[in-house]
Amino acid sequence: MQAKIMGIVNVTPDSFSDGGEFLDPRRAIAHGRELAAEGADVLDVGGESTRPGAAAVTAEEELVRVGPVVETLARDGGPPVSIDTSKLAVAEAALGAGAAMVNDVTALRAEPELAGLCAQRRCEVVLMHMLGDPRTMQETPTYDDVVDEVKAFLAERIEFAVTEGVEEERIWVDPGIGFGKTVEHNLELHRRLGELAELGRAIAFGSSRKSFIGKLTGADVDRRVGGTIASNVIAYANGARMLRVHDVGPMRQALRVADAIRDPSVRYVI
Ligand code: HH2
Fold first, then answer.
1. What is the dihedral of CA 178, 183, 184, 186, to 10 degrees?
2. Contact between 101 and 82 (Cβ < 8 Å)
3. Which of 11, 64, 168, 236 counts the highest number of beta carbons within 10 A?
4. What would the pLDDT profile of 110-122 be if each residue is shown by its tens digit?
């Protein structure tokens, strides 16, 4: 089974890698269209940065940022639009404007009523693991066994979502690379990603340009495409089925080659 590529559209002033670049809705829309042309299967629109120490944003402000972008990209009829939010009000407006997926980095913990909304709208939902919250998550994160703990957390969150009426087939699970994890935790999650497949849900994965790549290579945040591709190809080989990236074109190229190697029946004619 092939992986979907989720292209990142950050409508924020302060995202860790592209903050401020696409805060103007026209630029964000143009960027989303570019990612669609490069082969994105889903466009993930977010209006609040989750980088360590980022400022909180009100639902009103978040909606001002993402509303027109979601609406226009959904109306384009290109790739389905995902809303990257933890807020009920933002998700509700985005789904009303045509979004088809809710990507919640708190896995429905910040505003648990979001689960009921997702159930009612029958949208897809991404449940991501995070230790603590974005303000504190990188202060000496500690686990006995990072993979076991991430897996147990996600199992509990699946159960919660299903109890609230979300259909199990619509749930994605995500290990939350960089969210309360040291470099070694992140690498261990790559190596043992396959263990999360035992949860019975498709795995989403987001490592694009993240700081562990900088720590491993010394590369600045805007020069981490190579590390991002290596990370995502390994994640794909180990079971990830949706790859959330900034650099869609290079990721699409890498997946084509990975697929041709993995499956001799795949024939690409250019
Ligand atoms: N990472 C970020 C944001 N949302 N969602 C999922 N499901 N998985 C992730 O790993 C993930 C995510 C952080 O990346 P980015 O959006 O580029 O940065 P910021 O939060 O600073 O806007």
1. 30
2. yes
3. 11
4. 999 999 999 999 9
CB 64 within 8 A of CB 87: no
Task: Determine the angle formed by the axes of helices 25-37 and 59-76, rounding to 10 degrees.
Answer: 40
**Which protein residues touch ligand 1 with a CB less than 6 Å away?**
8, 10, 12, 15-17, 46, 49-51, 84, 103, 105, 126, 128, 174, 176-177, 204, 206, 244
Q: Give 148 Cα–ligand 1 centroid separation in angstroms.
A: 22
Strand-pair category, 101-104 with 81-84: parallel
The answer to whether the Cα torsion of 155, 9, 5, 188 is positive or negative is negative
Is the pLDDT at 264 greater than 90? The verdict is: no
Enumerate residues 6+ apart whose C-beta is below 8 A from 36.
7, 43, 73, 76, 78, 79
* 8 A C-beta contact, residue 105 and residue 129: no
Provide the pLDDT confidence category of residue 268 given band limits of 50, 70 and 90: low
d(CA 201, CA 48): 26
Q: Would you say 231 and 207 are in contact if contact means Cβ atoms under 8 Å apart?
A: yes
